[in-house]
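Re: duplicated header lines in exported structure tokens

Our pipeline writes sequence and tokens for each protein into one text file. With two proteins the header for the second block appears twice in some exports. Here is an export where it did not happen, for reference. First protein block:
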Amino acid sequence: MVNGGSRVLYNSAIALSVACAGAAAVRYLPTIPWDSWPQLALFSALTIYLHARTVKVENRMNYSLGTAVFFPVLYIYGVGAAMIVTTLAAVVDSVAHKKTVDRMLFNAAQLSLSAVVCGTVYGRLGGTFGYAVSLADIWPLLIAGFVYIVINVSLVVSLSAMALGRAVRSRLRGLLRTMDKDFSAGFWGVVFTLFVAEYSTWGIILLGMVFAQFSRFIEMGVKMSVERGMRQELERELLIDSKTGVYNFRYLTEWLADPAVDPTAVLFIDIDDFKAFNDRHGHAAGDEALITLANLIKSVIRADDAVIRYGGEEFVVLLPNMTRAGAKRVARRIQTSLKNVRFPRRDQSLTVSIGIAACPEDTKDKHHLLGLADQAMYEAKRSGKDCCHSWGESAVVHSV
């Protein structure tokens, strides 16, 4: 979205780009080899098809094999023909993806100007235009293709700087992340060029069909990836507690239903005197306390461990491949860290009672394991709160 202060500069940049592209068109359009109109028509049809099937591969980033079509047109039929094809690509892309007129004009202009620079570099490097292109021209082909992509990206970033101001950095990072796809399309463009130089019209038809089919595969793959990501996100949301951001009881239910029994320690955590805290400070402060405690627990445990809001002010922590002794150390770290937190004022703190049980030390049944940790937590409550107790041990460890 262009802000008011940048509108004049933005429009001026587009006008300048269009003017430069227009001047280049006057210079190069007369050089189009119209006697090759059947081949140019095939390239135009392929360009329309590929750009109409452009797929989004990242946020605001599109990918199309249409770039690969540009290179054989430029290297074999010249800069003028390439300007026509790139302008057609910009128009089709804008119509297919409902882009504004100013964006369409800029895209057409910057693609045309990139074609001019690319063709100039290719000629200066001694590259051969026409059907005489061969493997002997491979380095001019690759270098000129690289220049085309760099110029293209530079012009887009420049306009983004005028339109978006500080947002250009994120735009530049996004473009750089997708440049590998541009280089891939450029490589296939060089292959396409050599193929057409060798087989003429049949080369356009055969490799064009391959590109069209490959474009469909890309589109299908991206759609499947997006759908899979949305499904995973939905499944994740169903397992997340909306208030604290940790797992909910449904996650625990799925863990209990899984028949696999692996060595796991369980912490059953309950906030001491939480009802009194809520009555004194209000439910908003109570919610803040729950969120803070959940984040504190996550900061203490490992990445593969799981924090679950069991209900109300109770949390369960699953610690895979950890012994009872290791779980006790984690419980002590939670209680020690909690002493440095005040809710919601400097003179008010919270404590927790923690019950500990471990598999297979205490039981090999998951439901029984959770029950033992719960009972151990109540033993910690009976022992004065603000302490942790391991099932099967007589001693209760009080927080220091």
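Second protein block, exported in the same file:
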Amino acid sequence: MKLIVEADGGSRGNPGVAGFGAVVREAGTGRVLAERAAYLGDAVTNNVAEYSGLIAGLRAAGEVDPAAAVEVRMDSKLVVSQMSGVWKIKNPQLAKLAAEARRLIGRRTVVFKWVPRASNQAADALANQVMDSRGAIANGEDSPLAAAAGSPAGSAGVAAVGSPVAAAPGSPAGSAGGPVAARRPDRPGNPRALDDAVRLAQAVSSGAQRHPGTPGPITTVILIRHGMSVDTDRDVFAGGAVPGPPLSEAGALQAVAAADELTRMLEAPWFALERPSVLVSSPTRRAMQTAEPVARALGLTVHIDSGFVEEDFGLWDGLTKDRVEARWPGGVEAWAADADYEPGGGESRRQVGVRVQAALARVARANLGKTIVIASHAMVTRAAIGAALGASAQAWFGIRIAPGSISALRLWPQGLTEVVCTNRTAAR
């Protein structure tokens, strides 16, 4: 027998409100044989939640058939890479959870496969349901953290939230060690109606209500800030120097997550946006590395455009803020406060805005009516959003742009603009 384990976990806040979900399927038919999920508490990280989902899925698969070969499918590149031995595990808590997962694997044949988030929706839905309900679908012992978090424990097979457990048609019910499928809590109302309502909200929010009667094709620009670089934790000024620092391990994961989230956004609820047909990247290494998973997800070729490179920090580039302050006392504060200050003899914030607006206008003219994805930088994204809102360069620092985040604008030929969303990440 071959089984498929789909597992996921999430943390709203990272650390924050967390939960996991896992589904065990019969490989040949896709039939659900077991479901497991539990709320983990309100101070748990995303990675811990994902490992907890893996452990729950492996344990449930062992209950279904201890001798079955198992294929684990997860949208966590970190867990898949660590369990496959590609990446080392440096975090002690994750190492402990990985050891528990390996103990459950034992001598069984288990392979790990990374899948996009869109292909892991069943486990993701379970995780979100228990985070919403603060409950469980499966007994608390399925997670090494669930008991500590106060999750309700049930019999050796299953525990439900607020209602009796229903066995899946054709599955043996309830006995310890047998295959069990727990009934997940219903979403409020009609799930299809909820999905349709979300889609309708985006479809009618097309921008026409803001610019009535404005003719001409609307061009959509989706800006993705690169993931964290190896210099991010050092608080270093990393500007437009090429190639610049590469992505860190976390940054590479953020790039994959951004590509996954963008794909999901284009399906629902942002399906009204034209599907991207152009992918542009800043020439820096970290931006191009962020563009790579987007290119794979969308089937596009990356075009390099220096108009979207990060602010030029001149002599500050590569230096920590402390070193800059030591050599240019008051410089960091002046840079933050004055949009015309040229850090290290480089580029002022206002100059960045002029450059970015020119690059946006050029790319938009060449791709009227299309959707363009641009892998770029924090200040570039702030400049684009700030200009769209009519905000002065002095105010751009008030726009938060996280690593790996997605922002979107719509541009009319007459120069009118609309901000669709800002700072959207794949955090669950």
